[in-house]
Automatic annotation (TrEMBL):
SMART domains: S_TKc (SM00220)
Stated name of the protein: AarF/ABC1/UbiB kinase family protein
Protein kinase domain location: 122-503
Matches recorded under SUPFAM superfamilies: Protein kinase-like (PK-like)
Organism: Jeotgalibacillus salarius
Upper taxonomic lineage: Bacteria, Bacillati, Bacillota, Bacilli, Bacillales
Oxidoreductase recorded as keyword: no
Length: 544
């Protein structure tokens, strides 16, 4: 299996055929139960999604490479992926068997162009950590410095490039034949994946990112970033300072050293808020293994291979969204989402504002912690329906930010399950908003702070009207959706007809049967033209 999974044709075949199988299963399911979505159908849909997730997980663990990282990304997308799918993928990690020492040593000596003993005094032949990109070893330089050496897995760059070819085919299929094209610019998302994960393969880029984060947090009390050794670092070998510590999610370690979990969770949250509210880089993979804790409570940030960037305009929009949540001005939250291009012009702002308000209310009530509560289930159903039918998209630049946010949230709740993000962040956000406003806006900042309390009576009255108002909005919403059902059904039938010659086309090209390939190609083209025409009609009706 080890040799087979490195064959490009095999990897592409496994990935693409699995995707086509999933797309057909979803198509036939929707066709079979069109117009009669009830609790029993919802249960069947959940079972199908869970079955697909289990198959994906098994395939990803066998193939490794990009499949694991894509699975981790999908496991954070609660907005577009069924809950059962997410639950199955939550345990998917990029832990893989380590590379044999002889092969790792060969990479080191090829990159350093010398015997490794001339560069380091001693190195552990057993890695202290293994991941899909590389293994980490503990070593000592000749000057006595204790260092961590990250060595890229042999052939991983070839595997990742092959997987990107397969993903390009899958994304094309998803864009043409599924509803995901509405939620995201899939071509741009593919480009973002190539950029971010491609940078992860270049350890010199990781060094640059690490140095930048070290400079950013050099004056932050209780936070350290390892020092990097540029003279030892190459594209496939990275050398950085060794810092003793444990995973921040090691609860036994926290209790052993009498570290206050609530205080630690708050410090972590504010550390992430700093990256959230300001333009520049953010850590795109902040899982428990990339955040260490020292016995004295010092937080250590490591592994900057995967980072994202927030632009100035987006940072300002995020700031407005956070302020809107803190100060309970949900219209501003929707406006900020619109500025960040999450919403297209035809989006119903009133419905979305009500959903934001309900999400915050459920969060504050604590009902979200009970996944079986009726309120939570109803809210999730409404959110999924709105995301599915409203003109909402995922801006490419926020794809990895959402993944980072979800991962980081999980870390904090592991440390301190009772964490209340809104209340923990409120003093910092209020202080930050006042500083940003300047002395001339002092009274405005004060009013923002006390506004939720002044508006309480009106909110009580408004809350009494909310169910009726929300019901009217949802009825209008569903009438609009029903008008599109017929066109959508006709497009799905065309998709089914088109997938058959498309699969035949790929098989014929692989077997070099060019006459069959030509015929299948013509049928595929005719089908795509028909799908495009129906999609244009749907989009026109959707925007009216």
């Amino acid at each position: 299996m080890f040799a087979t999974k490195k064959v490009a044709a095999y990897r592409i075949y496994k990935i693409v055929t699995m995707a086509v199988k999933f797309f057909l299963q979803v198509y036939f399911f929707n066709r079979r139960y069109r117009g009669r979505w009830d609790p029993s159908v919802e249960k069947k849909w959940s079972d199908l999604a869970g079955k697909q997730a289990r198959e994906y997980k098994q395939t990803a663990l066998k193939l490794e490479g990009l499949m694991i990282k894509v699975g981790q990304f999908l496991s954070t997308r609660a907005d577009i992926m069924p809950r059962s799918f997410i639950l199955e993928l939550e345990g998917l990690t990029d832990r893989v068997p380590p590379v044999p020492w002889e092969k790792a040593k060969q990479v080191i000596e090829e990159e350093w162009n010398t015997d490794y003993g001339s560069m380091v005094h001693k190195i552990s032949e057993k890695p202290i950590a293994s991941a899909s990109i590389g293994d980490v070893y503990h070593a000592w330089l000749h000057n006595g410095d204790s260092v961590a050496i990250k060595v890229q897995r042999p052939g991983i760059d070839y595997i990742i490039r092959t997987d990107f070819k397969a993903m390009k085919i899958v994304i094309w299929l998803a864009k043409k034949f599924t509803s995901f094209g509405k939620q995201a610019d899939l071509n741009a998302l593919y480009g973002e994946m190539v950029s971010v994960i491609g940078d992860e393969l270049n350890f010199k880029k990781e060094l640059q990112n690490g140095v930048a984060f070290g400079e950013r947090f050099k004056d932050t009390e209780g936070v350290v970033v390892p020092r990097y050794y540029e003279e030892y670092t190459t594209r496939r070998v990275l050398v950085m300072e060794w810092i003793e510590g444990s995973k921040i999610t090691d609860l036994t370690f926290l209790d052993k050293h009498h570290l206050n979990r609530e205080d630690l969770a708050e410090r972590l949250l504010l550390l992430f808020v700093d990256q959230l509210l300001n333009e520049g880089m953010f850590h795109a993979d902040p899982h428990g293994g990339n955040i260490l804790i020292k016995p004295d409570g010092t937080i250590v940030l490591i592994d900057f291979g995967m980072v994202g960037v927030i632009r100035k305009n987006d940072a300002e929009a995020v700031q407005r969204a956070v302020e809107g949540i803190i100060f309970e001005r949900y219209g501003e939250v929707v406006g900020a989402l619109e500025d960040m291009k999450f919403l297209l012009p035809a989006a119903d702002r009133d419905i979305l504002q009500e959903i934001v308000e309900r999400v915050v209310a459920v969060y504050k009530s604590g009902d979200w912690q009970d996944g079986e509560s009726m309120m939570m289930e109803k809210l999730l159903e409404d959110i999924q329906e709105i995301v599915r039918t409203q003109p909402i998209q995922l801006p490419t630049e926020f794809a990895f930010f959402g993944r980072a946010l979800s991962t980081f949230t999980g870390v904090i709740y592991t440390i301190y399950p009772e964490a209340d993000f809104i209340e923990m962040a409120r003093p910092t956000i209020v202080r930050w908003a006042a500083d940003r406003g300047g002395e001339g806006n002092t009274w405005q900042s004060v009013l923002r702070t006390i506004q939720p309390y002044l508006s309480a009576p009106s909110k009580i009255l408004d809350a009494l009207e909310e169910p009726k108002r929300y019901r009217r909005s949802m009825e209008s919403f569903k009438r609009k959706e029903s008008r599109l059902t017929d066109l959508t059904g006709r497009r799905r039938e065309t998709v089914y007809i088109t997938l058959i010659p498309f699969i035949s086309l790929n098989g014929a090209v692989f077997l070099e049967e060019w006459i069959i390939a030509g015929s299948a190609g013509i049928l595929t083209l005719i089908g795509l033209m028909r799908v495009k025409a129906l999609s244009k009609k749907i989009q026109t009706d959707y925007e009216e």
